[in-house]
Design brief:
The structure holds two protein chains of two kinds. Chain A is α+β, with helices and mostly antiparallel strands. Chain A has two domains: about 5-80, Beta-grasp domain (Ubiquitin-like (UB roll)), CATH 3.10.20.30; about 90-160, DNA polymerase, domain 1 (Orthogonal Bundle). Chain A is about 35% helix and about 15% strand. Chain A has helices spanning about 25-30, 90-95, 105-115, 115-120, 125-130, 140-160; strands spanning about 5-10, 15-20, 50-55, 55-60, 75. Chain A has a five-stranded mixed sheet, sandwiched between helices. In chain B, the strands form four sheets. Chain B has a five-stranded antiparallel sheet with strand order 4-5-10-6-7. In chain B, strand 13 (about 210-215) and strand 14 (about 225) form a beta hairpin. Chain B is globular and about 55 Å long. Classes of the chains: A alpha+beta, B alpha+beta. At the A-B interface, strand 4 and helix 5 of A face helix 2 and helix 6 of B. Bound molecules: flavin-adenine dinucleotide and FE2/S2 (inorganic) cluster (2 copies). The site of flavin-adenine dinucleotide has 32 residues of chain B, from strand 2, helix 2, helix 7, helix 8 and strand 10. The site of flavin-adenine dinucleotide (FAD) has 32 residues of chain B, from strand 2, helix 2, helix 7, helix 8 and strand 10.
């Protein structure tokens, strides 16, 4: 099976790699680039743990072949914080106890970060529905929803 | 959960995509991959070649053709969901998209992929059927259109032939005094519906229903159009009276999620709610 040369930008850095077509983007990030912040839960699209941003949009990296991402800009959870300074969303997760084991957290963060503008106009039931593609098996969703609301509130205050 | 090996091409034109498909009996089209990649992961599909349509010119568009909207097959669901033209000209389509999986699924999933995949519980095939839409396909022998009534042939099965590509989905634009509604019962938000009703009604100046569309999903091996309910509504029946006819001709299966009887019950319930809301919105 022929391999393909791809060029991608991940968290602002350019990479060129040769990949077999069946290599999932999730495995490319974890095994080729050693960016293990992107977690893999179900590997068939139902849990959301593997969510990354592809050209600004939240996508499941287990439902995408690396070869399909050729020419795209990808952002993973490693690209959120500025050095040791947590991204406001990460700080809000910490403050609201929105994680326990942390397995689901990268997926939630990348989903929420991709939709912050939309969250700003959502009611709580709408926020919950927008997060329904990410599953958390330990902390429950209350803290996560609170972290979203806190981030959106400080985000819109800054804008004023 | 790793997909089997396959070859991959990403052609730039429909012609090249058709040629690539024709070059290999076991070739398959890859659109958004949101149904196909899970099938590969479970090894329920084993194509030798995937022909990715993502780089084909001219398949990503939303075109206003006056009385119709034509949407390119590779237009992502998330774009259609948020498009002001679609919200204005075909609100049933816009609203139904919010029930398709989750935002992360819709940012990759395409209109054409969902219609070609033809899941009996999927919203988009149900909308295209209910509205009397059609699809445009291109193959080695040229272009043709397939009416929705002839498109859906059974479980995950359509009359699009091997070697053909769906290039666009066409739905009628809604007229004045039109109301719509999407009502679903699902175990969790974003899950495929146990049963869903997709409804669009149009009133004349006196408030009489002059055009009725009702599609039902999750209640058979393909999306269904509730002709008996539509006729009753056009004949002046109330939503509750008309919805009693929803189970007519349906024979849903039983599975771990819901029994056949429960699905028939839901057909009545979702139809009644959808008819009621569509009437309210039309008024
Ligand atoms: C967790 C999860 C939840 C979901 N929930 C829902 C839901 O609630 N409702 C719903 O409707 N869908 C749901 N989906 C499926 C999703 O909508 C898919 O995007 C859609 O079914 C397929 O579109 P795609 O573009 O991803 O196509 P692909 O997965 O790439 O292709 C699907 C099939 O169609 C064929 N195909 C694709 N495009 C063409 C074309 N242009 N011409 C000819 N053949 C083509 C492919 O060969 C393949 O056989 C869900 C998916 C996941 C992973
Ligand atoms: S690992 Fe991708 S959705 Fe579960
Ligand atoms: S914090 Fe453990 S799965 Fe969410």
């Amino acid at each position: 099976m022929a391999t393909h040369l791809i060029k991608v930008e991940v968290n602002g850095e350019a990479y060129e790699r040769t990949v077999p077509p069946r290599l999932l983007l999730s495995d490319f990030l974890r095994h080729e680039l050693h960016l293990t912040g992107t977690h893999v839960g179900c590997e068939h699209g139902v849990c959301g743990a593997c969510t990354v941003q592809l050209d600004g949009q939240g996508v499941r990296s287990c439902l995408l072949f690396a070869v399909q991402a050729d020419g795209s800009a990808i952002k993973t959870v490693e690209g959120l914080a500025a050095g040791d300074d947590l991204h406001p969303l990460q700080a809000a997760f910490s403050a609201a106890h929105a994680l326990q084991c942390g397995f689901c957290t990268p997926g939630f963060l990348m989903t929420i970060d991709s939709m912050l503008d939309e969250f700003a106009t959502m009611t709580e039931p709408e926020i919950r529905e927008a997060l329904s593609g990410n599953i958390c098996r330990c902390t429950g969703y209350q803290g996560i929803v609170e972290a979203v609301k806190a981030t959106v509130a400080s985000h819109s205050q800054e804008g004023r | 959960m790793k997909p089997p090996e396959f070859d991959y091409v990403a052609p730039n034109s429909v012609d090249d995509a058709i040629k690539a498909l024709g070059s290999d009996l076991e070739a398959k089209v890859l659109a958004g991959g949101q149904s196909l990649i899970p099938l590969l992961a479970f090894r329920l599909a084993g194509p030798s070649l995937l022909v990715d349509l993502a780089r084909v010119d001219g398949l990503d568009h939303i075109t206003d053709e006056g009385d119709r909207l034509v949407i390119g097959a590779m237009t992502r669901q998330r774009r259609v969901e948020r498009d002001p033209l679609v919200a204005d000209r075909c609100p049933l389509l816009a609203e139904s998209l919010r029930h398709v999986g989750h935002p992360q699924i819709r940012s990759r999933g395409t209109i054409g992929g969902s219609v070609a995949h033809a899941d009996p519980a999927a919203e988009l095939p149900g909308v295209v059927l209910a509205l009397g839409g059609r699809v445009h396909v291109t193959g080695p022998a040229g272009n043709r259109t397939i009416e929705a009534e002839e498109l859906f042939q059974g479980f995950l099965s359509t009359s699009i032939a091997d070697g053909e590509i769906l290039t666009a989905v066409e739905v009628p634009a809604s007229g004045p005094r039109t109301g719509w509604s999407v009502v679903e019962v699902a175990r969790r938000p974003g899950d495929y519906a146990l049963c869903g009703a997709l409804c669009q009604l149009q009133l004349d100046d006196s408030g009489t229903v002059v055009d009725a569309h009702l599609g039902l999903i999750g209640v058979g091996d393909r999306p269904m159009r509730a002709h008996a309910v539509e006729a009753a509504v056009l004949g002046g029946a109330s939503p509750s009276e008309a919805a009693e006819l929803a189970p007519d001709g349906l024979r849903p299966g039983s599975d771990v999620h819901a029994s056949s009887d429960y699905r028939l019950h839901l057909a009545t319930v979702t139809s009644r709610r959808a008819l009621t809301q569509a009437l309210e919105r039309a008024a």
